[in-house]
Here is the input.
Amino acid sequence: MATLPNCPKCGDEYTYEDGTMLVCPMCGHEWTAADADAAEAGLVVRDANGNLLQDGDSVTIVKDLKVKGASTLKQGTRVKNIRLVEGDHNIDCKIDGFGAMALKSEFVKKL
Here is the structure.
């Protein structure tokens, strides 16, 4: 019998499988095995559609973003070669014609 990972939210050891999902009976948290593998590897960042992002991915901005002291980043702007970082704005990138920028992952989608 394979041992299941502890709950990533509360750390409880009594997790169980429900189809393709892993479930914690103590806090009700649900996750997939892919999420558990990514969490063990380090930083987990998901886009607006729930796709897992990695360093070097290309993304598209999903809504117009107002930038302090500059113009607006338009919906559909492509951003190449992102870098994931810790924090509230968890994507560092360089946008052509705009410069260096920190973005929130909830405003981008993976290409």
